[in-house]
């Protein structure tokens, strides 16, 4: 380890209790990966400590953690008589199976996006009743990261005359056994994971998510 940094992380300001907080060991303050990054290769940012009594070597640490913007998406799990509403769609030059899902648009709340995507992709109007969970997925190394907010909904009515969204082949109802048998066709592992979580009894209230109003919504 760089001697300056070693002395820095052992400094009392990082290990002693301040303002009633319990003392932290250096390993709890600075992860090993952060220390090794400093040691002759890359630097990493530790913006947590900016007090004047923090030694300058620590204040000079700069970040190697690459900030990124995840893709925010929604999906809707709609169950009726033991079957789940799915879509067959074209994606990446192949036909795949997915839940009704898509990106959140600017100014749109998550529940609104789930309702809209379900209607556009399946022609089903649904009532969103609960939240299943947030699923984070990176399809390929170094590729984009997707944060999928999956909601639970009940079917209300179907418009057989509605044209489905571009790329959608058809909306289908599949039971869990049929979905498992067609796992190679799933757009991602999240398709079956969401169904399994639902079957396990997971149900979260909608108010577990708080969304502050977008500036677009306040006008």
What does this structure look like?
- This protein has 219 residues and is an alpha+beta fold.
- It has two domains: 3-59, no CATH class; 71-207, Nucleoside Triphosphate Pyrophosphohydrolase (Alpha-Beta Complex), CATH 3.90.79.
- The protein is built from nine helices and seven strands.
- It has helices at 3-9, 12-15, 26-29, 32-38, 56-59, 110-122, 176-181, 190-199, 215-218; strands at 71-80, 83-91, 94-98, 101-103, 124-137, 146-158, 168-174.
Secondary structural class: alpha+beta
Q: What does the main sheet amount to?
A: 7 strands, mixed
The ordered H/E elements are: HHHHHEEEEHEEEHHH
Number of H- or I-type helical stretches: 9
Q: How large, in whole angstroms, is the Cα Rg?
A: 24 Å
CATH topology of the largest domain: Nucleoside Triphosphate Pyrophosphohydrolase
Multimeric state: single chain
Distance from N terminus to C terminus (CA atoms, Å) equals 54 Å
Q: What do we call the CATH homologous superfamily of the largest domain?
A: Nucleoside Triphosphate Pyrophosphohydrolase
